[in-house]
Amino acid sequence: MDSFDGVIEFVAVAECHGFAAAAKQLGCSTSHVSRQISRLEQRLGSALLARTTRLVSLTQSGAVYYQQCKELVVGLQQANEQISQQQFQLNGTLRVSGAGPFAEQFVAPALMAFAQDHPELTIDMDFNSRIVNFVEDNFDFAIRYGKLADSGLIARKLASRSMMAVASPGYLQRHGIPTHPKQLTIHSCLISNNDHWQFEHEGVSQSIKISGRWRSNNAHAVVQACQQGLGIAYMPKSSFKTLVEHGLLTPVLEPYWSKGASSWIVYQNRRFLPLRARLAIDYLIAYFSEWRE
């Protein structure tokens, strides 16, 4: 039987579309990946990859070979992980990208509890709203909120997020209390993700274009601006819960609040996930299965 050397490297290059990205995914050097694939092609007597200075693509033979090999590689990885899971604690570094109060206040504590169960595991959590490149930035998964772009990534729903509109008592004394979403056009609104707010009433949805004196992609900054009386804010309920309970912010337009969007776990094709990432994702899904905003 021919050696299997180079098959894993070949599948990684085919799916990462490059030698450097595959090397990073596999945790080895680019030269090692190139050398292993060259030897594989020599043994097979056929070119599997077409290489240019800017692009790596599959040849016709390579495409056929990839279809046969990819499930073999997945099966081998899963078999290895099952044995490893039985014998060892999780280790290495789990890198997570998160953004917003939900990730900070709820996801981070959940991952802390996960880390307590795996004392040899290191967790590196980056709070940044930018779009991440999972290969180049080496993130295992990301926590994101709202409608997701069709990026080819895998997304699993983590929690539903109901909305709430609030303002400071001082702002409402000066400018009045809106009783219908259309009245927001004459109010100062605090803009976070977009300037179109979605409301629902008796099964009817409506979108209101708003404007205001403060715009920020940081939810904490929006909440602080709301406390300072700069306008009306409209975000998931958990953003305001404590401040509303203490009377520092006042809910408005309650009959029209949207059921909101969702928070998601987003990651690359599952075959690339190390065991620590798979178990962390499954842990978070179970952890938030009965969570309510």
UniProtKB/TrEMBL annotation:
What keywords tag this UniProt record? DNA-binding, Transcription, Transcription regulation
- What superkingdom does the record give? Bacteria
CDD domains per the UniProt record, alphabetical: PBP2_CrgA_like (cd08422)
Locate the HTH lysR-type domain: which residues? 10-59
What the entry lists under SUPFAM superfamilies is as follows: Periplasmic binding protein-like II (SSF53850), Winged helix' DNA-binding domain (SSF46785)
Record PANTHER family:
HTH-TYPE TRANSCRIPTIONAL ACTIVATOR TTDR-RELATED, HTH-TYPE TRANSCRIPTIONAL REGULATOR
Which family is it part of? Belongs to the LysR transcriptional regulatory family.
Q: Tell me what this protein is called.
A: LysR family transcriptional regulator
What does the record give as the organism's lineage? Answer: Bacteria, Pseudomonadati, Pseudomonadota, Gammaproteobacteria, Cellvibrionales
